[in-house]
Amino acid sequence: MSHFPSSSICFIVIISILVSNSTLLCNGGKTSVYVRKAEKSVEMPLHSDVFQAPSGYNAPQQVHITQGDHVGKAVIVSWVTEDEPGSNTVVYWRENSKEKKKAMGNVYTYKFYNYTSGFIHHCTIRNLEYDTKYYYVVGDRNSMRKFWFTTPPQVGPDVPYTFGIMGDLGQTYASNITLTHYENNPEKGQAVLFVGDLSYADNHPNHDNVRWDTWARFVERSAAYQPWIWTAGNHEIDFAPEIGETKPFKPYTHRYHVPYRASQSTAPFWYSIKRASAYIIVLSSYSAYGKYTPQNQWLEQELPKVNRSETPWLIVLTHSPWYNSYNYHYMEGETMRVMYEPWFVEHKVDIVLSGHVHAYERSERVSNIAYNIMNGECRPVKDLSAPVYITIGDGGNIEGLANNMTEPQPEYSAYREASFGHAIFDIKNRTHARYSWHRNHDGYAVEADSMWFFNRFWHPVDESSQ
């Protein structure tokens, strides 16, 4: 029998413990070992090239598109002209077609304190063909600008489609890295699910609305070519009675139109769309959602409409997270969770995307719906009918990273990291989708966190062992 010195035995025991712990971490509850260098978030100056207006008199700028109907056969094209209203017409045509069509839009302006907006155009192009590339032109004869987009495939259960996911973007140097990484990701998102907090104009004196203009010019390089699906965050409220601004969401609602009426919503802050094999529900954390409110009544009627044989993937966007293990915005999403979480479990929502907390976190499939005043059950439990909750408020905004985490890490938290980044949700068919999150400080294709999603309706097996 061999005899080991006591120091060797101690070394073996320590190694065994480390190996054991690393195995446990792989099964969930992981806080990333990557620690981003503490850096101040700095906004890019107004003269930055990413903010430059296009040349030419009254040239259209801040061009962006979003889905324009419920099923993906329409597109809302939006742009701004600075000098005069100019043309409110969009000329568009299918790739390899000589037949050009026109759609007429409307022009809006607004005032906010001492700011007067340019002329904001919104034009809905309807009756488009599925899975088709279109070119479109906005502007007058002397300042026309040409862009393109591709419509989604026809709605169906096994239609593959790839979504990019971003939130809390702002317009800092880090924001530019996030957008660049998304644009250069080889997985090539076809549309962006944006979970709120766009320009952060309200972080400036008098909610400087010039920063709404610069932000829209900044994201035009993506948002003019693929639809961004908008969610309103707290930085879109722009409620400032101290300067006489008492109408919430004024800049946001003038600049970013969404097809809310197509899903029988009564306000642009909550609505739904179908896109390929996904059914996307957008909710508002900052509109009334209690019993008897319009948002509550709409959602109660909306969820039973989802036909999982047609659109298997049920995705919800909201700004304030329901499960959050960072010491920021504590409990802000709790009342909405209490109201709506039982519905999400009942209808087997696949994934809930949120922002607000300026970091990244992915949950296990858990629910906290057992509690009542008699049973005292008040801890989240594993629930294979529940969504995965992803907090992705890590776009790069001026307020910086949320890097103070609660300890110990809760059991419901599968992975968390205080870094900026973006995510990809790549739907393969009705049963499988691949999800990946990419931190800014790695290469474009490096996955800092990833998992296979198994559809809750068609393939509701446990993914937590990945």
From TrEMBL:
<dbReference type="Pfam" id="PF00149">
    <property type="entry name" value="Metallophos"/>
</dbReference>
<protein>
    <recommendedName>
        <fullName>Purple acid phosphatase</fullName>
        <ecNumber>3.1.3.2</ecNumber>
    </recommendedName>
</protein>
<feature type="domain" description="Calcineurin-like phosphoesterase">
    <location>
        <begin position="162"/>
        <end position="360"/>
    </location>
</feature>
<dbReference type="InterPro" id="IPR041792">
    <property type="entry name" value="MPP_PAP"/>
</dbReference>
<keyword id="KW-0408">Iron</keyword>
<keyword id="KW-0732">Signal</keyword>
<feature type="domain" description="Purple acid phosphatase C-terminal">
    <location>
        <begin position="386"/>
        <end position="445"/>
    </location>
</feature>
<feature type="domain" description="Purple acid phosphatase N-terminal">
    <location>
        <begin position="60"/>
        <end position="151"/>
    </location>
</feature>
<dbReference type="GO" id="GO:0046872">
    <property type="term" value="F:metal ion binding"/>
</dbReference>
<dbReference type="GO" id="GO:0003993">
    <property type="term" value="F:acid phosphatase activity"/>
</dbReference>
<dbReference type="InterPro" id="IPR008963">
    <property type="entry name" value="Purple_acid_Pase-like_N"/>
</dbReference>
<dbReference type="InterPro" id="IPR015914">
    <property type="entry name" value="PAPs_N"/>
</dbReference>
<keyword id="KW-0325">Glycoprotein</keyword>
<dbReference type="InterPro" id="IPR004843">
    <property type="entry name" value="Calcineurin-like_PHP"/>
</dbReference>
<comment type="similarity">
    <text>Belongs to the metallophosphoesterase superfamily. Purple acid phosphatase family.</text>
</comment>
<dbReference type="Pfam" id="PF16656">
    <property type="entry name" value="Pur_ac_phosph_N"/>
</dbReference>
<dbReference type="InterPro" id="IPR039331">
    <property type="entry name" value="PAPs-like"/>
</dbReference>
<dbReference type="InterPro" id="IPR025733">
    <property type="entry name" value="PAPs_C"/>
</dbReference>
<dbReference type="Pfam" id="PF14008">
    <property type="entry name" value="Metallophos_C"/>
</dbReference>
<dbReference type="InterPro" id="IPR029052">
    <property type="entry name" value="Metallo-depent_PP-like"/>
</dbReference>
<feature type="signal peptide">
    <location>
        <begin position="1"/>
        <end position="22"/>
    </location>
</feature>
<keyword id="KW-0862">Zinc</keyword>
<keyword id="KW-0378">Hydrolase</keyword>
<keyword id="KW-0479">Metal-binding</keyword>
